Structures are given as C-alpha cells and as structure tokens.
Amino acid sequence: MRFFIELRKLIFISLFIYLVIKLFFISGIPTDYIIQITLYSFIIVLASLGLNIIYGYTGQFSLGHAAFYGIGAYCTAYLSKILGVETFYSLVPVVFLSGIFTAFIAYLIGGPILRLKDDFLAIATLGFGILVRVFLDNSDRITETLGGSRGFVGINKITNLELSFFITVFFILITKNLIDSRYGLFWRAIKNDELAVSSIGVNTFNAKLIAFIYGCFLAGIAGGLYAHLYTFLHPSNFDILKSIDFLIIVIIGGMGSISGTIVAGLFWVFFIEGLRIVLPSEILEYRWVLIPIILILIMMLRPYGLMVKKEGY
Amino acid sequence: METILYIIQQLINGIQLGAVYALISLGYTMVYGVLRMINFAHGDIFMLGAFIAYYGITKFNLPFPVLIIISSLITAIIAILIERIAYKPLRNAPKISLLITAVGVSLFLEYTLSLNAFFSPNYIGFPRPFEIKNYELGLISINNIHLIIFSVTIISLIILYLLIYKTKYGIAMRAASHDLEITRLMGIKTDSVISFTFGIGGALAGIGGLLYAMAYPQINVFMGIMPGIKSFIAAVLGGIGIIHGAVLGGFIIGISEVFVSAFLSSTFRDGVIFIILFIFLLFRPNGIFGKSIEKV
C-alpha cells in the first residue's frame, strides 16, 4: 500500500490522462481505427517495457521477444475459447494466467540460454523465436482450435480502453518500483559489469533469469490483450520482424528508461499505423527504408538511445 | 533396397543444399574470426548475388561462367562498402551496437530493394542459364545442376584455400583472427585486411546466391533471411572462426534439412535446425572443431 501512496502523483496523472482519452473517445470524433491503434499502442508499450527490462536494464540481448508476446496471445485466446470468456471481468484472470504461463516458458528456456552472452544469446533467442513460429504454424496438428498456419479466428473483442490502459499503467508502476528495488540494482549492475557483480557475491545468473522471466511475463500479458483487441492471430504476427520492432522501440526510447520506452512505443505505433491514414501507400513503403537508416545513425551517434545521454543509472 | 536408394538420392540433394550453406557460412565465420561480430547483412549479400545473376541473364543474356564472376565481384564490392560505411565507425563500440547496426543494414537492403521502384516484394521466377539435363544412374537421378553446384563449390573452396594459406593477405587475415590488436602493432593495415575478409565473404555469398537460385528457381528480396541464419548456425556448429568447420557445418545443416523434409515434414525443417543449434550451444558451444579457449 505504501508504494501506491508514494506513487500517488503518477496515479493521479494517469487517471487524468485516462479521463482525457475517455472523453475523446466518447466525443465521437475518433474512428474505430483510431481507437484501435490507441489501445494497441498501450499494448506495445507494455511489451516493449518487458524488453527494456531484459535488454535495456539487464543488458541481455533478446531477438525473440515477439515469440513470448505470441505465446501470451495464443494462450489467452485458447483459454478464453475453451473457458468461454466473454466479459471484461473474466478476461483479466485469463490474461494473468497466460502471463504466468509465458513466464513459465521463459523460465524453462531462460535457464539454459542465459548462460550465453551477447551475439550467441541473440542467435539463441532468435532461434527460439523461429521455433515458436514453426510450432504455431503446425499447431493445428495438436488441436484444431489453434488454427496453425491459417490463423486463430473468432476471438471475442473484449479489450477496451480501461483494460489496456490500466493494466499498462499498473505494470509501469510495478516496474518502476522493481527497478528501484534490490533486484533492479542487481540488473543495472549486471549490465555494467557482470564479473564485478558476481565477485561481490550476487548470484548474477538468478538475477538475469528473474529479469528475463519478468520481461517475458509483461510480453505475455501484452499478447493476451492484443489477442482480444484484434480478434485474429496469425503466426506471422509474431516473427522476427516483430521482435525487431520491440528492439527499435527500446533503442529509440533509450536503454534503461521507462519514460523513454513509453514515448517511443506510442510514437512508434502512431508512426507505423497512424501514417496509414495520412499518407498514400506509395510513400508509406519508404518508412521501412528510413527506419533502418535511423537505427544505424542512432547506433553511430547515440549508442545508448535517443533519450538517454549516457549509459543510464 | 529402394529405401537405401531413396536415402542416397536425398543425400545428394542434401549435399547440394549444404554446398550453398557452406559457401555462405564461410563469410560469417571469417568475419566473426576477425571482428567478433555476427554480420546479419550477410544473408542479404547472398540475396543480391541471386538478383545480380537474374539481371545478368534476363537483361544481358550472359553465359554462366561470366555470371559467376560478375555476381561474385559485385557482391564483394557491396560487402566491402557495407563494412566501410556502416561497421567501420563502430569499430570500438559495444558488440551489441555492431549487431544492431548489422540488423539495420539487413533491413535497409531488404526493404529498399522490395520497393516497387526496384524489385517489388513478390517472388520472381529465375531463368536457368542452361537447360536442365537428367542423368539416370539406376534409380538415382542426378541432374547437371547438381554437378555444376558441386564443381563450382569445390573450385571456390580451392581458390579460398589458396587465398588464405598461400597469399600474404591470407596470412594477415589469419593473424588478425588470432589477435587484431597485435596484428595492427606488427605494422599490418588491419582495415584493408578487414575489407579483404568482407570482400571474400561477399564473393562467396554471391556465388552461393546464384547457385541457390539455380537449384530453387524462385527469387525474392527476403530469400536471404533463413539461409543466412542457417548458415550462421552452420558456422557455430563447425566452430565459429574456423574455416573448415564452417564448410563441414554447412553440409551437416544442408543434409539434415533435406532429411527432415524427406522423412518427417517440410514444415519442421527450420525447427529441427534450431534444436540442433540449442544442443550445440548448450553442450559444445565452441562447435565441432573449436578449442575451448573462450567461454561463450
């Protein structure tokens, strides 16, 4: 409880933001599409926050984040199908359950692969991403409901503003607190010098594993909300390009910066999706020519991200 | 008897695919040896090799030997340019920055070429530079594509061997892969050695792209992603930084991929490759030939 009192300012600010968005939605100005991408942007912020824990704070490079996002999405969709979830209130426990399931998968996979470093970790997580993709493509052999390469259809549209906004805000606050906790300190220290941290008696492997599990848990929750927002899942939505999306958000926002991730996540969704309304499709194709150039320039000029001056503490 | 012949037939197909992977994985392993980085854009160099050959055939109607030379030369130049423009400024940056830059270069090449002004994102049929001929040996059939891929791969490997073990640049490259800093202290221009490494890797990937497009005659700007990743796995399997290891790893990956497609299901083949990778990373992270000096 104390932590909510300490964070009351942030809670009031987010309530205010919620009211503004809610009024905006009720006013009837925004189309369904704009409402959808607004909710989607909160989901993306949540999932990117997970990657920021893993990569931005702890320094464990992951190219398979979208796989966990996908596991969460498929798990939620499957559970709510077999349990017949149709309302807002019954969805929340299902989403949390699939978040926990995703975290469990992350525990199983993180145990062996977090012993690897840098590039090898990148390849291993990339490999896990492709394994999940192959599994999802063949999932109709296990049960017809999962749909395999035809995609998972017929999910109820339940995710609304309250659900996506408050879950995201809740986890932003939790994450903020976690970063200031003892484990958050370990994570930041591991990023700077793992050897030094282990020399003062910290179990670095455990700390890394917890960061990985928590990051993937957030991705799983975000995936669950995504499933009930877009009502259709396809394995290609969760492949390596999606993982690179999350990576770009974390890099643009700055590694180890929560506010940076929030801003970059919102910016990213409106940049990718929002421009579809404004620009014709011929010009739209050039986005993906521009983005890699921006990425390379950031790496050359601001290697710790746009919004972080130095390697952050 | 028929099963054995079927296995031999699949083995031949596997060696064909493995030869292409071997050519690509050499580029990964050499670059990793010198710079300790995963050149994610290498798969796209492979794709460029196929596209250059496509233009050589459809626009200029070039004969096959000229195609090989043109593809490998242009891809070598592109690989050197990529290194000079994108990677060189980051020589002292953290490893992950280099990796992200490489991912950026890869995305840039793919999406720029997939613009409608260039190649468009669709699949394009690749015209073979010559007619396909089948030779029946009992129940096994071999075609001239198989034979050409084997012979081109062997010739390229011999040239590579001569370059690495018999020329001064090759000696410098091997020294650089041992210790880049010390090599620089010995008065060797490491920047040109690095360019040389990227050039050779690019040329081999370009040849690989041409051969792959001949064997599986459909090309696409995103065709380099999976072969690129698999070839990197091949390099890890053989022991990253070790040249003969990359060749062996390429053949292992190619043969296992074809066998999984033939005996299990083609949808599982990518999964099996990554399971092999996991097993190696966990139990023998230095690969088949790697000595356990550096703990990854």
Describe the structure.
The complex is a heterodimer of chains A (313) and B (296). Chain A is 74% helix and 0% strand. Chain A has helices at residues 2-6, 8-26, 32-57, 65-83, 88-113, 118-137, 161-180, 182-192, 194-199, 204-230, 240-253, 258-278, 281-284, 287-301. In chain A, helix 3 runs parallel beside helix 7 (161-180), helix 3 packs antiparallel against helix 10 (204-230) and helix 8 crosses helix 10 (204-230). Chain B has one domain (2-131, 143-283): ABC transporter involved in vitamin B12 uptake, BtuC, CATH 1.10.3470. Chain B is built from eleven helices and four strands, in the order ααααβββααααβααα. Chain B has helices spanning 2-35, 42-58, 64-87, 95-113, 144-166, 168-178, 180-185, 190-215, 225-238, 243-263, 269-283; strands at 124-125, 134-137, 140-143, 218-219. A two-stranded antiparallel sheet of chain B has the order 1-4. The radius of gyration of chain B is 19 Å and the shape is globular. The interface between A and B is large, with 38 and 43 residues.
